[in-house]
Amino acid sequence: MRYSRFFLPTLKEVPAEAEVVSHKLMLRAGMIRKLASGLYSYLPLGLMAIRKVENIIRDEMNRAGALEVLLPIVQPAELWQESGRWDHYGKELLRLEDRHGRACCLGPTHEEVITDLVRKEVRSYRDLPLNLYQIQTKFRDEIRPRFGLMRGREFIMKDAYSFDRDEEALDRTYQTMYETYCRIFERCGLDFRPVEADTGTIGGDVSHEFMVLADTGEDEIACCSMCNYAANVELAPAAVPPASPPAAAVSEMKEVATPGKRTIEEVTALLNVPACRLVKTLVLLADGKPVVALVRGDHALNEVKLKRVLGVNELSLADGETVRRLTGAPVGFAGPVGLTKDVRVIADAALESLCDFVTGANKEDYHLMGVNWGRDLEPPEFRDIRVITSEDPCPRCGGRIEIRRGIEVGHIFKLGTKYSGALGATFLDPKGRQRPIVMGCYGIGVGRTVAAAIEQNHDEKGIIFPVPLAPFQVIITLVNTKDETMVQAAEDIYRELLGHGVEVLLDDRRERVGVKFKDAELIGIPVRITVGKKVKETGEVEITQRASGRTALVRAESVVKEVLNRLK
Ligand code: ATP
Ligand code: MG
Predict the structure, then answer these.
(1) Ligand nearest, relative to CA of residue 142
(2) Which residue in 564, 375, 560 sits closest to 467, CA to CA?
(3) CA-to-CA distance for 489 and 500, rounded, in angstroms?
(4) Which of these, 466, 471, 472, lies nearest to 454 by C-alpha position?
(5) What is the side-by-side order of every strand in the sheet holding 551-555?
(6) 459-482 pLDDT, tens digit each
(7) Is 200's C-beta closer than 6 angstroms to any atom of ligand 1?
(8) Which of 3, 69, 140, 519 could form an SS bridge with 108, CB 3.0 to 4.6 Å?
(9) For atom 24 of ligand 1, which residue has the closest CA?
(10) Closest Cα to atom 16, ligand 1: which residue?
(11) Distance CA 295, CA 388 (A)
């Protein structure tokens, strides 16, 4: 490709709308442009990187025996009603009506459509196992689209669905997909970790997320420093601290004035008690109904765990009005003592051994001190509803837990018979009995993978593409487009590289060489060949490695051989 004929609008300025480095660099490198919130156009350079990821995925999925299909984006509401998700998916599902008034939606995922296909075609155990995948545009009306391709509304996903005769066969397929995912992300050149994960709205029982490790990641992962345990903090069980010294009440419960003090910091400072002796009272709406959650002042509520305990889909903090109606006090002074019996109260398990604690008094500007379960209030239901911390032991081996950040690029699930049961996708087993097909599903965010690769591989000058994802492997910087010897040498190297199947960009623009260097660094091409004055003086050109910045002089005739070696 000749740069002068390429569509590569690079930007010098850092775009104000971008918060994370991958988003900034993808805009600056002319890979993407925003159309509207969460909607992006892929420009040639961006699309080339996306195709690289797609090709690696295709290659590995095919090798694992999966078969590529392409399903419709628009899906009829009836299928979603059959699975029960029409009412449960929430606002991320974009619903529309066609000209006949038929309800449909834009596919955020394809469990319903694929299960419908398979229930009509698969008859017998001889048709199984089957693993079908597609690489396609999804639409999710995300509440907060951000970080460019990282969390778009319209985005490219690889989704695969497996169909097996029983749980054992699913276990084998799942294991194959797990290994396939490891190979895919290794081949992309990424530093990643598979972690145990929550199953969310997709459902099912076992799932793993594939996390690219990066400080800017939206997810937190609990990793053990001793064994190989790693889990999303949404899921990681938090230990219950042993009650030592044995919990025993020593104080009387008394009301204390805390005028205007609402936060943990304000109350602990005023009363001179540590945050771990405070009980935080959160009034929430669970599928629209108020519930109260209690956690220790130094712990954080884990909404995913609480949702599971309550068996609800939506959870949000209650508004001030609801808090006042329920507790008789404004936000900041709620507490479990004397709460109405009509509301369900769930306390974190770490609170069970707490005594003489502090909590809101359900009265404006007052807290209670010296509160004790049993004596002052009915003990509530104790469950694990908090976020694990680096002070908790590893749930598997008791080792030290580290909290790291990651970007979820892939997610695999064992679905079991959730969808086949609901939609009636069955097969006849060898004894002629009709049984539901056992399913799994496996997703990869293609655009998010490219963004994550940039998040992990960049410097102050720009992107440093891992070779397998680089849109071009080599850029030839022609220093002077008016010098015939230089032009000839650059053209020769260009043609020779093309002949070897190398993806190469020849920077033949009439630009200052400084501009050319800056662009080459920004767009992150792994190897640069600079054809300048030296080619006339000594017959040499420069090879520069983008990652290390190291430069070597090589004779023009042998530069292609040298480059091929380096790209191996
Ligand atoms: P998240 O928790 O980040 O919203 P998810 O659990 O909803 O992700 P899945 O339904 O498992 O995601 O989708 C499979 C993959 O699709 C994810 O692992 C992720 O890489 C990608 N993905 C999901 N939502 C988006 C989005 N809004 N923009 C870009 N990629 C996405
Ligand atoms: Mg999501």
Answers:
(1) 1
(2) 564
(3) 17
(4) 466
(5) 504-507, 474-478, 527-531, 540-545, 551-555
(6) 999 999 999 999 999 999 999 999
(7) yes
(8) 140
(9) 151
(10) 445
(11) 12
Residue nearest to atom 2 of ligand 1 (CA): 408
Beta carbon of 135 within 6 Å of any ligand 1 atom: no
Query: How much distance in Å is there from the Cα of 153 to the middle of ligand 2?
Result: 10
Token couple for 517: 């260097």
- Give the residue, by CA position, lying nearest to ligand 1 atom 29: 151
Q: Which ligand is nearest to the CA of 150?
A: 1
The pLDDT of residue 201: 60
Tell me how far the alpha carbon of residue 506 lies from the centroid of ligand 2, in angstroms.
Answer: 40
Ligand 1 atom with the shortest distance to the CA of 140? 27
DSSP string covering 259-287: TT--SHHHHHHHHT--GGGBEEEEEEEET
For helices 559-567 and 484-499, give the axis angle rounded to 10 degrees.
40
Strands 206-213, 192-196: parallel, antiparallel or unpaired by DSSP?
Answer: antiparallel
| Ligand approaching nearest to the C-alpha of 445 | 1
Pocket test for ligand 1, best of 157, 193, 198 (most atoms within 8 A of CB): 157
Cα-to-centroid distance, 409 and ligand 1 (Å): 7
List the pLDDT tens digit at each of the 568 positions of the chain.
999 999 999 999 988 989 999 999 999 999 999 999 999 999 999 999 999 999 999 999 999 999 999 999 999 999 999 999 999 898 999 999 999 999 999 999 999 999 999 999 999 999 999 999 999 999 999 999 999 999 999 999 999 999 999 999 999 999 999 999 999 999 999 999 999 998 766 566 789 999 999 998 999 999 999 998 999 999 999 987 665 555 677 889 999 999 999 999 999 999 999 999 999 999 999 999 999 999 999 999 999 999 999 999 889 999 999 999 999 999 999 999 998 888 999 999 999 999 999 999 999 999 999 999 999 999 999 999 999 999 999 999 999 999 999 999 999 999 999 999 999 999 999 999 999 999 999 999 999 999 999 999 999 999 999 999 999 999 999 999 999 999 999 999 999 999 999 999 999 999 999 999 999 999 999 999 999 999 999 999 999 999 999 999 999 999 999 999 988 8
Cα(90)–Cα(80) distance, rounded to whole angstroms? 12
- In b/e form, how buried is each residue of 240-260, taking b as 16+ CB within 10 angstroms? ebeeeeeeeeeeebeeeebee
Cβ of 155 closer than 6 Å to ligand 1, yes or no, is: yes
The whole-angstrom separation of Cα 181 and Cα 412 is 9
211 C-alpha vs ligand 2 centroid, how far in Å?
Answer: 14
- Please give the distance, rounded to the nearest whole angstrom, from the Cα atom of residue 201 to the centre of ligand 2: 9
- What distance in Å separates the CA atoms of residue 185 and residue 208, rounded to the nearest whole number? 14
Determine if ligand 1 sits within 6 Å of the CB of residue 332.
Answer: no
Encode pLDDT of 91-112 as tens digits: 999 999 999 999 999 999 999 9
pTM: 0.89
